[in-house]
Design a protein that fits this description.
heterodimer, A: mainly alpha, MetI-like fold, 2 domains, B: mainly alpha, globular
Chain lengths: 316, 273
């Protein structure tokens, strides 16, 4: 029938077909890409975490054969083993790693807030024409390599490093401090690497705050310190939450910082997973480690998302 | 906030920036150190740069890294921009919830998990690990960053321009290329740069997904750093920092220049009316 249609109509059909192809491609290309390269790999991790390890290439027994059909799948599901998960609870290395990752991330987040808040506050109060430059200066380190920024601290923190040289020269200490390969080096590394993540949301929040509120408080006889705690601090809560989550979430799974700056006693789960995978070659256990790590991170991620959604509502 | 800038504020800004910049500055200064001992200054020298360029392993790794970064940033920019359009403009489609979840999840996913999961995929389909797998991995996580950057630009611009074009009979494709794309271009460029630096920077995901012959620069740096700090690595790091800083400065200056040009054109248009 298509042949009998007037040529103009056919042209219109082609155009509208092309239009919908353009729209559909825009949606489906990235969608398919993420299904293949994000969702499917993630399901593979989940599947592997319930498989038995094996001395083979690749080193695991398949927990599920997709070609078996629904009945076969059910049989496969019955063979799922939680042995990898029970193994995690038995070996102290794992729960200690989880605990110490959360602890290290928590302490580092607090330290980052302690340094980041005065910085963001100072930036927000800077003369208006200076602010874009200051903002650029916060963002610039964010573009330079993470690995290089962590590496830069090794020369500073080690025993014969620049910090010890400086402190001895200044007469503050007589014996060099041992910072490198301790948890303190890891805290410093995390604070340094993630400081821009803390400062940016805080600055965005503090800059928007209404200065007249503080003037009103001062007029009514409120001291500057108590005005800060009663007005500025409560108002900056969304910024504080966003900043803390942006530091805490990646810090928990951090690998580069503990392996370059931390010592052998610095347990962090990212590093444990990496070693489990590359040194012990136990893929099923490392998958189980990954799944538990995600479960731990879900709570802070939900908190973050909730505070973001609230901020968006208030902004609208 | 327009209150006075107290000395406490100034001090915290100065100290904060000192903390952010001194380590990098020290790294750059000591890359010109003549001594092999990284922490003892023994005069100015550029010999470590010569040594870095003579180190074929490093040069090869740098070449691999740049190839991966350019290809992955370009594909990620196209896919990320499409994803942003899908989220902000063609909003009615099935599975949108899953789609937006998959855009945001990689942003908060620990790198070790992203790396591990992609490796399992490549092993499951029997793909040889090498440059291709690293590139595919980099495209996947950086396209989500591009999508978020472009999305925020799409959210902030005047939609009536697009609607006008559609009303006047332009096809969605035509509207996109002649109205939307020029307007969101700064965000697309910023997204490309972000994807490029993310790829240049990545250690963990590359470590999981690369094979023999596809050692990237961060992998090389990492394996050498574990043996100790060397002035040669300082030199390589300085070059990388210089490239990125120059890129960011040039990009922001050219964006500023474009803004000024546009403002001037708008003024002219108003005058001739």
């Amino acid at each position: 029938m298509g042949v009998l249609l007037p040529p103009r109509r056919a042209g219109v059909d082609i155009v509208s077909a092309l239009q919908s192809i353009f729209k559909r491609a825009t949606i489906w290309l990235p969608y398919l890409w993420l299904i293949v390269f994000f969702l499917a790999p993630f399901l593979l991790v989940a599947k592997l975490s319930v498989s038995e390890p094996a001395i083979a290439q690749p080193p695991y027994l398949p927990a599920m054969n997709w070609l078996d059909g629904p009945i076969g799948w059910w049989c496969d599901i019955k063979t799922f083993s939680i042995s990898n998960y029970t193994f995690l609870t038995q070996d102290a290395l794992y729960w200690k790693s989880y605990l110490s990752s959360v602890q290290i991330a928590f302490i580092s987040t607090l330290l980052t807030l302690l340094i980041g808040f005065p910085l963001a506050y100072g930036m927000a109060r800077a003369p208006r024409n200076l602010r874009p430059l200051l903002l650029m200066l916060v963002i610039l380190p964010f573009w330079t390599s993470f690995l290089i920024r962590v590496y830069a601290w090794i020369g500073i923190l080690k025993k014969e490093g620049l910090l010890n040289q400086f402190l001895i020269w200044a007469g503050v200490i007589s014996e060099p401090l041992t910072i490198m390969n301790t948890n303190w080096a890891v805290y410093i590394g995390i604070v340094y690497s993630y400081l821009p993540f803390m400062v940016l949301p805080l600055y965005a929040n503090l800059e928007k705050q209404d200065g007249t509120l503080l003037e009103a408080a001062a007029d009514l006889g409120c001291s500057k310190v108590s005005a800060f705690w009663q007005i500025t601090w409560p108002l900056s809560r969304p910024g504080v939450i966003a900043g803390c989550m942006l530091v805490f979430i990646p810090a928990v799974g951090e690998f580069v910082i503990p392996s370059l700056l931390g010592g052998s006693s610095t347990l962090m789960i990212g590093r444990t997973l990496f070693d489990e995978f590359f040194q012990n070659r136990d893929w099923p256990v490392s998958s189980a480690v990954a799944i538990i790590l995600l479960l731990i991170l879900i709570i802070p991620i939900m908190l973050f998302q909730k505070s973001e959604a609230r901020a968006r509502e208030q902004g609208a | 906030m327009t209150r006075q800038w107290t000395s406490f504020n100034i001090a915290s800004v100065v100290l904060g920036f000192a903390f952010l910049y001194i380590p990098i500055l020290l790294l750059i200064i000591y890359s010109f150190n003549a001594s092999k001992l990284v922490t003892v200054w023994a005069g100015f020298s550029t010999k470590w740069y010569a040594a870095a360029f003579a180190n074929l392993g490093l040069v090869d790794a740098a070449w691999v890294t740049f190839k991966v970064a350019i290809v992955s940033a370009s594909v990620a920019t196209v896919l990320g921009t499409m994803a942003a359009m899908a989220l902000m403009r063609y909003t009615r489609f099935r599975g949108r919830f899953l789609f937006s979840g998959m855009i945001y999840a990689p942003l908060v996913m620990p790198e070790v998990i992203t790396g591990l999961s992609l490796l399992l995929l490549f092993v499951a389909v029997g793909m040889e690990r090498g440059i291709t797998t690293v590139t595919l991995a980099h495209i996947t996580f950086s396209m989500c960053f591009v999508a978020v950057v472009v999305q925020s630009r799409l959210a902030s611009f005047d939609r009536s321009l697009e609607e006008a074009a559609l009303d006047l009979g332009a096809t969605p494709a035509r509207t996109f290329f002649s109205i939307t794309l020029p307007i969101i271009m700064p965000a697309v460029i910023a997204g490309w740069m972000l994807a490029f630096t993310l790829s240049l920077d990545d250690l963990v995901i590359a470590q999981f997904n690369s094979g023999p012959g596809a050692t990237t620069l961060p992998m090389k740096i990492f394996s050498q750093v574990r043996l100790g700090v060397t002035p040669e690595i300082n030199a390589v790091c300085t070059i990388l920092v210089a490239i990125v800083t120059l890129g960011v400065i040039i990009a922001s200056l050219s964006m500023k220049y474009n803004d000024v040009q546009r403002a001037r054109a708008e003024q002219l248009a108003m005058q001739t009316k």
